[in-house]
Amino acid sequence: MTHRPWIALAAIGLLSACARATPEQRIINDAAAALGGRDRILAVQTLVIEGEGTNGNLGQDMTPEATGQTFTVSGYRRAIDVAGRRVRIEQTRTPNFPYFQGQQPQTQVLGLDGDVAYNVAANGNATRAANAVAEARRVELYHHPITIVRAALDPAAMLTNARMLDSEASVDVMTADGVTLTLAIDGTTALPARVTSMTDNANLGDLAIETSFGGYQDVGGLQLPTTLTTKTDQYQTAELRVTNQTVDADVRALAAPPAAASAAPITGPPPANVSVEEVARGVWFLAGQSHHSVLVEFADHLTLIEAPQNDTRTLAVIAKARELRPDKPLTQVVNTHHHFDHSGGIRAAVSEGLTVITHSANAAFYQKAVGRPHTIVPDALAKNPKPLTTETVNDEMILSDGTMTVALYPITGNPHASTLLMAYFPRERILVEADVFNPGGAVAPYAANLLENIRRRNLRIDRIVPIHGAITPFGELARTVAALGAN
Prior knowledge:
This protein is an alpha+beta fold. It folds into 2 domains: 5-261, Lipoprotein localisation LolA/LolB/LppX (outer membrane lipoprotein receptor (LolB), chain A, Clam), CATH 2.50.20; 275-486, 4-Layer Sandwich (Metallo-beta-lactamase, Chain A), CATH 3.60.15. 22% of the residues lie in helices and 36% in strands. A hairpin with a 3-residue loop joins β10 and β11 (205-214). It starts with a helix and ends with a helix. 40% of the residues are buried.
């Protein structure tokens, strides 16, 4: 049977008051029939999906718009308790690029059990993930044809906004448990073509996550897709090629491990803890957690190096800077590179009136990022809008007023990012850098390139002040690179 859902939509204006199905219900009914029938869908208890594919590296690639860095995914297994709304994903990821943990395969176990999201490390230790992660995984459960259509068939679901676009019929679905998504079905086959949901991202604001489906095949009387492709905003972030899938098979244990189930809920980012260490006269290390910043005092103003992670961290660092020198305005922030964990506070810095100094390759991206809407979770800039002012670095930028001098140089040729800046204090013989050398790290894939950049510019350095890790003597970098060469 050929399904033509556009006929139902074209007849919206002709429906009588006694019509038994709304246009929205007709779309769902067509999709259910194409997948194998309403009764068959409602009878499904479990799904097990196995395959291989790729994961993207959103926000962490070489440039803001690049998508070349991926993880090869093998051993993928997603077990879904459809009725119980539980899921456990097991996969092995191998990076195709130099990575902090090295390029060896990394096993991941990610789960959701009710309100509890959990992760299981390679050593078997289970931890509870934040509530925001649980919510994201709860939404992701519906990014499959069976789960979204089954949820839409529930009388408690709310169906709205039936429409046609590019030969696809779409309907908005609010599930019985309050998740809002859009289902689009193919105009000829009526098979689900894609599911889209909206979420918030600290850097990108309101964005769509879309999973599209292809290569349907019969599995136990149901039509199931053999390719699932996910886009986050405009970027492809996952592709799964299904090699085996079963309906109502044994899903094994999906319950959250006791260590995760008994852990306290994590309702938001941890409270900011900003410690202060004076590195030299007019230079402070603002640390205390995983991502650090550096405050620099000039004769009539202050400059901050790095606005990391999110509003919570960056606003706390800004407050600490103003507390240290309340008589001088904080006017600038130097961004070491575009990676989302190092630029997640840029919008907060703009909301506080700071000029952003960054690599020239970042300017256009930050202009767009500052202009994007943040309505799902309004952030500091959404609440206090201000325009973005940038100063860009190409080969070098010297910040100097006689009392303090800081030279900003790109770190060229580094496989971590093409937008890296390092800050050099010639009088104090200090170097500030992010990611390319993390003292004490298990691997150091970027350290040799950093040393090459330092030597090429003939910089005289006594200490490295890293954005990750503790302040360390410069000799530690040289010893690390030498050890790498020996291996």
